[in-house]
Structure formats: structure tokens, C-alpha cells
Amino acid sequence: MTARFFTTEKPAAYKGARAANGLNFRWYDPDRMVLGKRMEDHLRFAVCYWHSFTWPGGDPFGGETFNRSWMHDADPMAGARAKADVAFEMFRLLDVPFFTFHDRDIAPEGTTLAESNRNVRAIGEIFAKKMEKAKVRLLWGTANLFSNRRFMAGAATNPDPEVFAYAAAQVKNVLELTHELGGANYVLWGGREGYETLLNTDIRRELAQLGRFLTMVVEHKQKIGFKGTILIEPKPKEPTKHQYDFDVGTIYGMLKAYDLEKEVKINIEQNHAILAGHTFEHELALAGALGILGSIDINRGDYLLGWDTDQFAMNIPEMALAAYYILKAGGLGTGGYNFDAKIRRQSIDPDDLLIAHIASMDACARGLLIAARIIEDGKLDAFVADRYSGWDGKEGKAILAGKRSLDDLAAQVHKRNLEPQPKSGRQEYLERLINDYL
Ligand code: XUL
Ligand code: CO
């Protein structure tokens, strides 16, 4: 590494109440046991390459604010190598176990796909060398199938099969690199898999193309022996007005239609959940119930804005409910908490990057501790179990097992003179109960 980028060389550590300057953890204590598992192994934090090292701080009204030197190297590959140095220095300073990237974050696009792939592979080799000496591992890799203008009408759902082929070639390269780097997952986010106007769009064809693309990715995973999980990341809008992978429920339906529900899981992002009109915990609980919860992109949206602000997650009650539903689903398996989050464009000091991650890791850690208390105390779980306990009885089980018809049930209601009485849902009692754990 040439010049020092951050002001500190000391990795962040758990200091409890003594963590004063924002560069150490108050709550995130990797070795602390929570429900029988180390905190680090519950949370499996990952730093993303794109927001932290590739995004220059622009918005629709103004350009770069961060002035990172590696973005201005006359030789873009030299810039990519300098960027890798800073990235791995940050992984070390945050003591995070994982990172994530798109191909286009880590290396510049060349004039041909062959050159682009070579650039990606060259940086991949640097990653492999750095990972020999570092703790950090790859949570997932992914291909950027949305920035280049060739993808303006989609990648898999493009009206032109040559664009589909180009996207397939790009995914093959990144999936193989992810495999070689020992990645725990591979992510597909729909990017421009959607449409702007129905007038130029054949939905039937586009859905069939998307299904074939996903199936090809799973087939290739099996062919190369990649043991990680293939994840789809839902998002309802932005960049296209109608995205096919709208939310968890929509993707589940698609996976069923393509016969992939056993092969593919879901990467749920907080900001995408609220853009879909859901809470984060709704999406987590639904994916858990359907058995397809894979990983999360942790960030926060702005409830007043209808776009993806990707802010660092700091809201402790929200993190607590998220952690609760993740724990109820049995955890994230090969997944983790990926910081798909960016500092605000006025946060121009290099250390702001460290402070943002550390503060959000603390918020997530507190959320986990609160969720563990809710589970250990058991009152919430007991309330819900009691509410549905009728279904554990003989008749409830017989209905669900398909042993009762409409005729049977009608006869039973008349014979037993059933007059079911409504019971309180006790929402405010439960809301107060949750507040007790915060
Ligand atoms: C876009 C988004 C992506 C995916 C990976 O909103 O979340 O960064 O996480 O392609
Ligand atoms: Co994301």
C-alpha cells in the first residue's frame, strides 16, 4: 500500500462503554455468545465494494464529492489495484469476516468482454493473494448487468438474444471467480429486468427468458461444483418502473414456476422491502415461512422518499425485529448481513466510512441482543403459539391433512352447534412487551 488512507491503523475492537471516538465497538463483541453461537457467526457482516470504494458521491444534481485518488488514476487498472489496497485495509480495520462485489466494481470494463473478464480476473488474483493473509472471506460475488448501455432494455429479459448471451458470459466469469475465491453465495439482482412501458414489452417472452437464465445459472453452479447458495435479491422498482422480481412473494411464485424453489434462496434488502410497501420484517418472516431466506442487504430507506437511499442502518428497534425473524427462521445459513449502504455525500472524510460501518454494526449487534432476549423470555412466542393452538388439536390437524371436506365441516358445525367467539389480538399489549426489551 502506498499512502495511508484512513487516520488509524488499529482495527476496531469491542470496548463497551469505553468506545468513545466512533472507531471502536460499544456493542459488537464478536466472541460474545448469543443463544449458543458467537455474535460474529450470527451476523456474518460483509462490506460491499460498490458503495464504499466505487461510488464517488454523486447525485442527480451534482457530481463527485469524495475525491478518492484511485478513481482518477490515468491507468484504470492501477486505480483498481490501489482501490483493492484500500478495500482490504478497511476490511482489516473493521475486522469484518466478509466482503461482496460486482465485477464492474473491482475492475474497469475493457473494450471487449474478453478484456473486461481479464481485468476482473487480474484483480481476482490480487484478492486471492490478499485473502491468504487476511481474515476476510467472500460472502458473495455478482455481475453488473445494468450499468452499460447494452443492458438498457434488460439483460436476461432483453428483446435481443445476443444481449442475453453477453449477460450469460459475464455471469459465467463472475460465478467461476466467486467459486475460486471460496465465496459462500452468488447473487442475482434483477437490475433492469423489468420494463418502462408495456407498449414495447412482451411479458410472456421476458418471463420465459428470465426463467431460462436462472436455470442456466443453477446448471452452471452444479457443473463447476460451486457449493454456495444462489440468491435472488428482490426490488420492486428503480431502475425500471416495473421490476419482475418485485418482492419475496413474487420471487417465490417465479421460483415455483421455474422449478427452482429448492435451488435458489432470497437476499432481502431493507430499503427494497419498504419500496415494495412492506416492512423489512414482513419480508424476512415471509421468506422464513417459505423456507427461502438466504441473506440480507442491511441498510435503511427513508420513509419519506420513494427511492433507494441505501443509508446505514441505525434504527435499533427495527434491527431487533429483523434479527428476531431471522432467528425464528433458523438464521441465515451461508448468508450474512451485507452492508449495501452508502455514507451520505457530505460525509467526505475517509474515517466516515469506518465510523458508519462501526455504528451500524453496533446497531445490528444491539438488535441481535434484543431479539435474543425476546426469544429467551418466550412471552411473545408463547402468545402466538397459544393464539393458534386450536390448530394443534385433533380437528385442526385433520383439516390441514386434507381429511375434512366442506360437507364434513358443515355437518360438524351444525351437529356441535359451533358458535366460535372472537378473541382479542392484543396488539398494544404486544407492542408494549417489545418496548420492554429495548
Ligand atoms: C441495487 C442493489 C444492488 C444489489 C447487487 O439496489 O441493491 O447493489 O445488492 O447487485
Ligand atoms: Co442490495
Describe the fold and architecture.
The model has no long low-confidence stretch (mean pLDDT 97). The protein is an alpha/beta fold and 438 residues long. It contains 16 helices and twelve strands. The strands form three sheets. It has an eight-stranded parallel barrel with strand order 3-4-5-6-8-10-11-12, surrounded by four helices. Strands 1-2 form a two-stranded antiparallel sheet. A two-stranded antiparallel ribbon has the order 7-9. The chain has two domains: 37-352, TIM Barrel (Alpha-Beta Barrel), CATH 3.20.20.150; 382-437, no CATH class. The chain is globular, with a radius of gyration of 24 Å. β11, α11 and β12 (337-339) form a beta-alpha-beta unit. Cobalt (II) ion binds at residues 233, 269, 297, 340.
Characterize this entry briefly.
With 438 residues, the protein is of the alpha/beta class. The chain has helices at residues 39-43, 49-54, 76-94, 103-106, 113-133, 161-180, 203-224, 248-257, 270-275, 280-290, 316-328, 350-377, 379-387, 394-400, 406-416, 427-437; strands at 33-34, 37-38, 45-48, 98-102, 137-142, 185-189, 194-195, 229-233, 242-243, 264-269, 293-297, 337-339.
